[in-house]
What we know:
The structure holds two protein chains of two kinds. By secondary structure, chain A is α/β, with parallel strands linked by helices.
Amino acid sequence: MSDKSHDPNQMTGAAMIVRALIDHGVTDIFGYPGGAVLPIYDEIFQQSEVQHILVRHEQGAGHAAEGYARSTGKPGVALVTSGPGATNMVTPLTDALMDSIPLVCISGQVPTHLIGNDAFQECDTVGITRPCTKHNWLVRDVNDLAKVLHEAFYVATSGRPGPVLVDVPKDVQFATGTYHPPRKSDVHRSYAPRVKGDATQIRKAVALLAGAKRPVIYSGGGVINSGPEATRLLRELVEVTGFPITSTLMGLGAYPASGKNWLGMLGMHGTYEANMTMHDCDVMLCVGARFDDRITGRVDAFSPGSKKIHIDIDPSSINKNIRVDVPIIGDCGNILGDILQVFKAEAKKPDIKAWWQQIAQWRARNSLFYRKSNDVILPQHAIQSLFEATRGKDTYITTEVGQHQMWAAQFFGFEEPHRWMTSGGLGTMGYGLPAAVGVQVAHPDSLVIDIAGDASVQMTIQEMSTAVQYELPIKIFILNNQYMGMVRQWQQLLHGNRLSHSYSEALPDFVKLADAYGAVGLQVHKPGDLDGAIQEMISVKRPVLFDCRVAALENCFPMIPSGKAHNEMLLPEQANDEATAKAFAAGKALV
Amino acid sequence: MNQPASAYFIEDRHDPNETHTLSVLVQNEPGVLARVIGLFSGRGYNIESLTVSETEAQKHLSRITIVTTGTPMVIEQIKHQLDRMIPVYRVVDMTLTRRSIERELAMVKVRGQGEHRVEALRLADAFRARVIDATTESFVFEITGNTEKINQFIDLMRPLGLVEVSRTGVAAIGRGPEGM
Ligand SMILES: Cc1ncc(C[n+]2csc(CCOP(=O)(O)OP(=O)(O)O)c2C)c(N)n1
Ligand SMILES: [Mg+2]
């Protein structure tokens, strides 16, 4: 009989957790301690392979882990205590589920014998997080812990990625059991995501592409999630076919914004040319996107004349909102590779000159037009200046939610994937600052900027303290319009300009606030001072709160209004009061 | 149609609803039923009937039978949403296979005297329902069959003194030698 005390795989549950993190290559985690995770914190204290970043609110840990994951392609890890620690994770878990971000959350739980007793800091964590995780587990036996942890990493990162949660009661953390390294049998036999696309469907797709007269490629976050190979293949496909390409908010950067076939983002605040191309196309290739309602506008008028090919790893994304003609289930990278192979062997570049001429006319409408001013900074101008100042630099952008987010998507050009971190599906105000913390932890020497709004930034401002503690030189670039601008815009357009509770009353002095946190505060009012201040922000190697005072009442255009189709966009130069009133006339629902 | 100013495009869907019976093979583990039910309530799908029991103890397999209604597109969604859950092995649409047998069991309590009592017994006999409990003024009938047959029996018992009904919900299985 072996002497158990000398078996290196005999260890406490708490030790297994740290060991599993190491075995999965995790080097950084984000967390906040509490009674139900103290044994794990004790283990963390006694090792140096996993760095723990102490946030100031568990929501911050979750978004930081998301930022870390999205900028690296690796899973993000968060550690929180039971009860309020776990409930504070609900927003980031939901956010990660909507945006398909691999996240592993480990939560402490009250000891097993107290579960169900309304014990101190007890909550039904697996019950609460069931609808906002891809899967979750409550581990009642220390001998199940290794298997569950390994499965958790696998589930989070495979197939359509997503958040998972492992709830570990305190007695299980203390108990001793047997650890094993990751192995194949750790995973449910019922879980087998499909990777390879069906060959017949791929042939059908190629036939459609080869015969297209007015094609478009519409790509999404799935391409980025699939990894660098998918991005490379997408670019090659555009090259080989000569097709125009647009993307969702989540997919920006997969195809470079400077590429000649780029139409800009599509959807509610997408470009005119992207939306018109979608509307009038005859063949649509959707890669790793899901026909979300911000993309389609009115579904019964969505791209009425096209044959649609849809590549997605999640079968439930197919035919959910829009009926497609050729669904292909599997990994985008894998399928794009197959499509390219068949296309190159059997098809030739279709002649779509006339289509490009049509697109050029739409482009000429210059739908992102705005009027610059010498007196006030226009928010669009601020983003453009920021983009110019960071060109060629190793830059990562996160955002909050609102007008500034849409302007960032419209005016900041992304050349590479994993450089753009925004809360797309859930639209979580307060995402950007902690996400920037996570990105900066993963890329200590890069320039990490949160393009923020004055309202959103206050939702997780406490993470400035985290940035200062860990010397993370994140830049919080606040487009301060003194309004919840996006809410104000809708109230103006839809609710008779009754600006109910959308004014940012009693804003803090962001410069003093930065100072109070031990960060750097900058403020600019005048367009003439903007470039200099941005240079200063970039050169300071400390966290910066940048209070960029911008025109208060600027609206975000172009816009697909109220239950309208892609070809009914409201363009900036038309958006006078009368046209706006007509576009949003009563009797039409908003998009 | 006049629509309120909303953040979403509100549309009327006119596709007719269909009723489908789904057999779902799952890993029998804590929370699996809550996951399935949560999916239905969370996404606004209907559950007309739901039965669940472990079917292979050794392999920890349970079989869930769900009768649901929705437009064809919604039914498709339900199947995909179920199928992508981690502990779900297989989802079979028994209605699409058109080769399935569906049964449910009901216990029906009827209270009455005289002519009503005799009539209840006579009908029970015609429906092959068994008497499983009796007093001088009541019967409990056990009846097995498809949903329609049971509904019909219950309707007939109503004027004869129906007190209460307990039903198992639908269990379904495919015809022929193959398993699901
Ligand atoms: C947590 C959360 N609460 C509420 C909303 C609704 N919402 C969307 S945008 C917005 C206003 C954002 O204001 P600000 O951050 O100043 O950005 P701006 O639109 O002015 O650029 C609000 C309240 C949200 N998206 N997230
Ligand atoms: Mg604002």
